[in-house]
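User: Can you write out an input/output pair for a complex, sequences first and structure second?

Assistant: Here is one pair. Inputs:
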Amino acid sequence: MDTIFALASAQGKAGVAVIRLSGPLAHSAAAGLTCDPLPPRGMRVRSLYADDGSRLDDGLILTFQGPASFTGEDVAELQIHGSTASVNAVMRCLSDTDGLRLAEPGEFTRRALENGKMDLTQVEGLADLIDAETEAQRKQAQTILAGELGGLAERWRRHLIRAASLLEAVIDFADEEVPTDVTPEVQTLVTGVMQDLQREADGVKIAERIRTGFEVAIVGLPNAGKSTLLNALAGREAAITSEYAGTTRDVIEVRMDLAGLPVTLLDTAGLRETEDHVENLGIELARKRADSADLRVFLTEDPSELGVQMLDGDIQMLPKSDLREDGNGGISGKTGQGIDQLISHISCVLGKRSTSHGIATRERHRVALIDARTALGAAMAVLESGPDLYDIAAEELRTAIRALETLVGRIGVEDLLDEIFSSFCLGK
Amino acid sequence: MKHSKFDVIVVGAGHAGTEAAHAAARMGVETALVTLSASDIGVMSCNPAIGGLGKGHLVREIDALDGVMGRVADQAGIQFRLLNRRKGPAVQGPRTQADRALYRAAMQKETQAQNHLTVVVGEVVDFLMDGPKVVGIKLADDTEIHAGAVILTSGTFLRGIIHIGDVSRPGGRMGDRPSVKLAERLDSLDLPMGRLKTGTPPRLDGRTIDWSDLERQDGDDDPSLFSFLSTSVVAPQVSCGITHTNARTHEIIEKNLSRSAMYGGHIDGVGPRYCPSIEDKIVRFAEKDSHQIFLEPEGVEDHTIYPNGISTSLPQDVQQDYVRSIKGLEKAEILQPGYAIEYDYVDPRVLTSSLSLPDAPGLYLAGQINGTTGYEEAAAQGLVAGLNAALAVLGRDPIHFTRADSYIGVMIDDLTTRGVAEPYRMFTSRAEFRLSLRADNADQRLTPIGIGLGCVGKERQSRFGEKMDKLTAVKSKLTDRTYTQKEVRAVGINVNQDGNRRDGMALLAFPDVSFDDLVPLVPELEAVETGIRLQVERDALYANYIARQKKDVEAMKRDESYEIPRDFDYSALEGLSSEMKQKLSLARPLNIAQAGRVEGVTPAALTLLLAKLRREQKVRKA
């Protein structure tokens, strides 16, 4: 029996998040995150550590010994801080633990049922619960499909069906007029999907951002009011401001919550030609950080004079609108003019980015992507040997498809046969 | 009016019927095989071949349970080929051209020799009923035969209509009467029915074919037989010819499309996509300017040729024209025109995994009537129905084949949970556990089950026992100890430099390591015979993958252990959509695993179902 785990509380930011583990390894896996052993039944406050010794979070760990538990198996509950970052980090550690896997939807309930732990009233209430679950699944699927990843998942599905059907056609219609070697086409299809999976799995840049925060850099000429704007946004004096140009020499970071998104604002040195060595170092650093940020706010009349490239989604605002007669398109940290507009622009751009990259932010999906990529990699290795090993290649492809089922939907033998019959004239 | 009594009656002596009757008789119950004519037993009404991919697997499985098809095919085989010979053993399928006359003779001989089996000649016109229960049959001459179970294997005879061009007439296979009365009785059972079609090519006179310039296809030099008991080929071996359609052929067919029964709008049934008519091929794959035709001899003494690849429902004169446009067939005479046949089938989702009809206790259906096509699919169902009818008569539990143990299980599960959209044919791709369900290990998978049931004869039992003893002995020598990489390399075997010690079986799992390579490592293996060597190699080859699949199999078995009562009321299940309720009510899955394979059923619906089942169980216990 596998040990399963999942986030038991709602997804997203909250005061406390609960991660539940159930199965034979539940207690040892929970203890593995701490330095001290856990009682078979009880409650302990512990610090949680990753494999490399870095601290993940502090939390309350509850242990229940089967059969006296929700599922009837050994159960552990980790109550940790409800930040997306902590939850993801802990979930990732758990999924890297041998013998543990992410629970399927409804699997805890299912185990409880199987072990006879649900009583009549609970079972009666289950119908509602199931409805909620399917609705959540439907929404989840739709969110994925609405974004650009919907197109990607659809392409994977199409390519995998095509690749598997080519192999199956050669296997199952060996005595008919089908090609005997489809290796190059299958390789092309599989490589394409693998590259996408690779990008999704390790490029999880946006998912990282949700964990660590998006970086938004404020750039402009010296004394454009960047620090004043930062302070106004942060609501506190995070950066030192003065009327002297070149006051900010280091990059000042302020973490804040912009419309629910974690954002790190970067206040940078004013960009100008200067003889001051220290200021020049600051300017160089400012350009570098601005370039690598997720979004840039150009506080200037003319973005081209700053030596930082304006990218898609970046915004230009006219500085110090309080000193202008015509305040349109301007912003002022001093009066607060234009600040709402800036916040809504930033949260709109970043919000869009975070939803359109929804797939890989979910741990379940990351695991699926990696499993599928591994199987496809194995298929590619076997394909090198050509048609003689198509039985093995087809098996690896089947494994990959199974792993991706939650993303691309179920691919059954009928899908393969449809593709085979529409591509080849069969029937001798 | 005559009366008699048997334990099991099998109606129809095609491939499903003969296998069903033999299976029941092997179980030791008195069995009647009822046929319109004794000479019909063992007739191959379509192409003269047995086996192939998936199909060959089924024949091996039938044989592993001591069924007749494999032995008879080996007697009649005139061109044996192991398909996918160069690929892995999991996807290799034995196939043979079969001599019609030899096949029929061998089947009739087996049937005569079988204890507890009586052939009854007559036309079945009705069932004898006792309330909803089927308790026997009535023949056209008013004879009544009573039995504990009746297996109906009426093939395409249910409301069969034969089409040749715009001429159509009622009929089963060419020359046979359709069973209209029986169809009316089935109507009264109110079963969900559908309509399918299939076709045959014109049969040619081989003596009028110019073979001189045609490509030949020979059988294998070392034939792979079907039966685990057969040792060598019996009949003389022949080769097939290969020719192709051409632009002129296509032109003739295109010009006359409107005269084809199918394209003229005379046919409603759904045909198989893997066996299209030549009209279909030309319309759907217009870009192909040529299609391959195999010229298959129907027998050694028989000069009839079955041109595989040009089945048709065009009028006879057009058939002659297009046939004669083909190379080698310029002067060919048609002995019997090609035709399309439409027939009724019963939606198999109403059947149990025993192939019985819950609403008509005592009645079993097997073969083409369940929406399948092919001799092998029919025979395998016959076997399942025959065994289960006998078990029921004996008051024993039914035998349930699963997706994890056999292609038979895959087919029964597909039919009873998913139904059919076109005539159902077996493919290896239908088996998710393909790597473990091989033709070569059918005996290891199923013969023990058959011995447990009591359907396996003494000869096979002892032969199987000897083989298993040898395999076990060799495998234990191979797993006795592990070898370091240095030891392995010393005898010339190159494996991954991962530092792992491996035993002999693990070494054999590498595709490029053969049994012979291991002999220097384990010298006492020198004496092992070739057959056992090959089998150990095949058993070892997929070991890693089979271990991986084991988890899937376990998950499936766990779900299969949650049984759903036959009378479970899906309409009372709150939270299920009405579409899903309808699908589940029709398929009536036996357990949670099957329910999950019913199209459109989600994990959430399964959880709901499981919850309800547990509650009912508790209520029943209380």
